[in-house]
Design goal:
Elements lengths: L2 E9 L4 H14 L3 E8 L7 E9 L11 E6 L2 H7 L3 E10 L12 E3 L1 H9 L5 H13 L4 H11 L5 H21 L1
Parallel strand pairs: 1-4, 4-5, 5-6
Antiparallel strand pairs: 1-3, 2-3
Helix pairs in contact: 1-4, 1-5, 3-4, 3-6, 4-6, 5-6
């Protein structure tokens, strides 16, 4: 792996910023070079939100995602905005609970929010299910480092619930790989 550009996008309140921070933390724990940035609309909840993570074995000379290798869309708005900007042959991951149309034919469609609701009873854990799915499909960071990042950074009292959500996402990735 030379450089992997990842964009996680959705709306405010979906936890895409936290997902990016957790991914960056896990990459650091794995000894990789990392840049993480974020952007969100002024409305916070409900406005556009994105987190970008660049992971590399070498120094990162350009800290912005240009053409994402991996794009995770948690909302239809995010998909409409960012899917055209994914690298040719890149991986598009969609939360099929809220994304019903995508401009690219090849995409991993998983009902992420629905899985979070079933696994933890809380839709707010969809970001962690999504993160598990992304890491399970790409192997961009180790499971151990990601679990450690979740333990260290999950809001107080939510670590076990978030680890459960992470496990669901990782399992979904394995199921998707077996069926593909």
């Amino acid at each position: 792996m030379e450089r992997t550009e990842i964009r996680i996008a959705g709306t405010g309140g979906q936890g895409v910023i936290l997902a990016g921070i957790l991914l960056a933390d896990a990459a650091v724990r794995d000894g990789k070079k990392v840049v993480q940035s974020q952007s969100y609309g002024p409305e916070a909840r409900g406005g556009a939100s994105r987190s970008e993570v660049i992971i590399s074995n070498e120094e990162i000379d350009h800290p912005k995602v240009l053409d994402a290798d991996v794009l995770l869309c948690m909302s239809q708005e995010a998909c409409d905005l960012y899917a055209p900007k994914i690298k040719k042959g890149g991986l598009l991951i969609l939360d099929s609970t809220s994304v019903t149309r995508a401009p690219l034919v090849r995409a991993v469609r998983v009902p992420i929010t629905e899985l979070a609701r079933q696994a933890t009873g809380r839709e707010i854990t969809a970001n962690i299910v999504a993160l598990g799915l992304l890491v399970g499909l790409t192997g961009v960071v180790s499971r151990e480092s990601l679990e450690a990042a979740v333990r260290a950074r999950a809001p107080r009292g939510t670590a076990e619930m978030n680890l459960k959500a992470l496990a669901v996402g990782l399992e979904q990735a394995q199921q998707w790989k077996r069926s593909a």
